[in-house]
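Quick log. Single chain, no ligands specified.
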Amino acid sequence: MDSSKTDIWGNVSGDYVVRHKTDTWQVTVFPENSSGESDALLKDWTDPVTHPSGTIGENVAGTIEELKLNEDTGYMGLIAVKRNNLWGFADRNLKLVIPFQYDSANAFVSPRFGKVSVGGQQYYINEKGEYLIRLTRGIVYTGVEAKGTVIALIAAPGFNNGKSIPTERYNCAGIRITEEEYQKEASVYNANLAAAGGLTYYSSKSSEIEWAFTKNNGNGTSSLWKMKAPKGFHTSRNFREGLLVVENENGLKGAVDKSGNIVIGCQYQFLSDSSGGYLGGKMPGQSRTSISLVKNTLYPSVTVKGTKASPPEGNDDTCFSVSLLMSSKTLPGKDDVKIAIERGNGVVCSAPVSDDGGRTWKFSLKDSAGMTASYLIEMTEVIEKISLNTTNITLKKGEKYQLRGMTAPEHIKGVVIRWSSSNSRVVKVSQNGEICAVGKGKASVTAECNKLTASCTVTVTDSKEPPASDSKKPSDEKKIKTGDTVKVGKVTYKVINARKKTVEYKKTSSTSKTVSIPKTVKIKNVSYKVSRIGNNAFKGKKKITKVTIGSNVEQIGNNVFSGCSKLKTVSLPSKLTKIGEKSFYKCTSLTKIVIPSKVSSIGKSAFYGDKKLKDITIKTTKLTAKNVGAKSFQGTHKKAVVRVPKKKQSAYKRLLKSKGMSKSVSYKRI
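-> predicted structure:
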């Protein structure tokens, strides 16, 4: 069937279809309340071919021909920018986020949806530039309603030759959803709006004298909240971060607080809603390439140990991140966390509280309307431990050896390790960790980083003496070198470290339904630990149903089980620290996963599209917005049960939601 000739219902027009008696047809019928999350309704079209230009992160101010702010919804997310007749997207500081590549573009209507056009075809993309929705040609969409992670596209009959076309509703994965599912997500969005100091405008009850807004009560109910309308102003917008955009009689826009006080004077032709403490505006006569950032003086300012915190990626304006290198021994105390509000107007701030030793802090603001907004401060650059590539070594006088210091998590940048020797007459150590045996005896070499330490005991023998028994190397190691690939049976291994006897499980020629990654493997009669599963090891092996992973495995590489659509059971070992990108991508039969306590890194799209993954246990307390990749849990079961450590429940709710987890999942404490 040629899908290009079908309408939105899947009906074929203009073709004769012949069915023979011997033909077998399979028809999938979804019940009325179905979410439609099946391969039949997933994206079946190819992304358009584009030729992007520009560098992500570059400041495009002064180089662009035009920019577009969202004048329809007031949302200030990614801004559409144009250069050399192509459109891309930049953040509020005009740093390029999505390169120039579209024929036309509109500013994002919510954190997840931006509209673009390529080759005469219109699409909605997400903030990563991935194509989500392809709009049906010939249909005029007269209304768009975006609520956080869901969007509704409305096509009025008056613009479509009198045809009655049902509203199309999609989630942030571009999958069609029902009205019930849409309303459920929209309710969560409204709850989040309230948590950020917002109120939803209630037009049917508003007047020139009194304005009415919907207030989310946080228990599944809502109520009306009313305020006296400031004289000479009108509005149809929502409160966001304590501010409401209003318009005066001359059509110029400003903002008021919940007491009706003017916070931002009416001088802007356009003014966005507050987002992360700023509003985007344009004054009359301002050029098409300019934007004015207007500070929301009601939004809190947070500093930790003198470093200013900022809202992290993911457009979560109630969560601050602190990019300051720390360790588990140098976490901030209560006196290190400072919260300030430039213009209080009756705003009361609670004292910051941490229940995990300083890794995260919570505080709340109570505004003049008696409404409370909750905030989270997260330390993103925390080193949990430091280790060395060896802790005991014997060298002959005059020999050198390179010590390597490793920190966990691995992703943290800017780490500086300082080296010292307990006895420089025995061992000297350079600033990069190279040790030199200078005299007979024993000494300790120590690596230190942010008050965390790790040591190696070095024994130096006279050059004429044979090395101590524990330093002898088996003859086989001379034959097996680091980086070698060795085949044992049907499995190919790669030697990670010949001296430490560690290997990577690289690939297998087996077509068995069950896979067992061993704890150790013998190579030339020497036992090697299997500590890693290599990239793409089982990618696309659709027959696999069960995987057992040996207890020495510490890392699972990228795309390891990607596309293993029949994989139902997998057990992750307790030593595991890293789960790579797309490691379990579209394992659509996987129903349960337990993430061990030492995991400190989960790559982007790790569990993407695992639509039956309903039982999730997270034992680790080390996950943050920085070490968990984008979309890592997107497309998992909408009603999953997620078990998390008690002290991380609040933080993980925010984290997992920002990484694609459905807002309708339930959380339980371990």
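Confidence is low (pLDDT under 50) at residues 1-42, 469-477.
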